[in-house]
Design goal:
57% helix, mainly alpha, 4-stranded mixed β-sheet, 206 residues, 9 helices
Length: 206
């Protein structure tokens, strides 16, 4: 398998960490949506990452769809979400909140750093920060035990941890404020980053 996209993207990295956790082998093709648009377009017409190319040439796009494929490659008792039932809905909903926070984080970054300074729309930047923090606050409130969705490590924990790690990398000031505001999520992120699956798919140096 080939996983397209850089680990700087929390969406690419969550797919990579999941594959590593399951012991699924892949090659990372570290293309950037900024510098390698033509290369990404060959596997995703809307030029987004991650994209996963299977050995038979089939391409799967979107991190949640890719991870659903990964889930179906392992035994049910190893999956990071049940196949059905209330527990599945709960984990997927919490994962979606973490991914929503990640999306707002990235949109805020692009507005501030990819748009000419004179055209940056400050209310949008502030709104994205508020939405990101609201999502993280919800996850913080749920994190009353070792993991976000209760007693077992799940996709929600991966999504939250890669989001916070990326935030620290792209905005140190906001990352520090987030660590102080959401200490349980910060602790979760630190624990996750020491897990073999995370260490095997590290954030790039730059």
């Amino acid at each position: 398998m080939k996983l397209f996209g850089r680990y700087m993207s929390p969406f690419v990295r969550r797919a990579a960490v999941t594959a590593r956790h399951y012991g699924l082998a892949y090659e990372n093709v570290a293309l950037s949506t900024i510098d390698d648009r033509d290369g990404i377009r060959t596997v995703n017409p809307v030029t987004r990452v991650p994209a996963l190319e299977l050995p038979d040439g089939t391409v799967i796009v979107d991190s949640s769809v890719i991870i659903d494929h990964f889930d179906r490659q392992v035994e049910p008792d190893r999956r990071l979400v049940p196949a059905s039932g209330h527990r599945r809905t709960e984990i997927l909903s919490l994962t979606a909140i973490a991914l929503g926070a990640a999306e707002k984080m990235i949109l805020r970054f692009y507005e501030q750093h990819r748009r000419p300074a004179e055209f940056v729309y400050r209310p949008w930047v502030d709104a994205c920060l508020d939405q990101m923090n609201d999502g993280l606050a919800h996850l913080e409130a749920r994190l009353t035990g070792p993991w976000i969705a209760g007693g077992a490590f799940s996709h929600a924990d991966i999504a939250a941890a890669v989001t916070l790690s990326t935030l620290h990398r792209i905005d140190a000031d906001i990352g520090a404020a987030t660590a102080g505001r959401f200490p349980r999520l910060s602790g979760l992120t630190d624990r996750c980053e020491e897990m073999p699956a995370f260490l095997a798919a590290p954030l790039p140096a730059n």
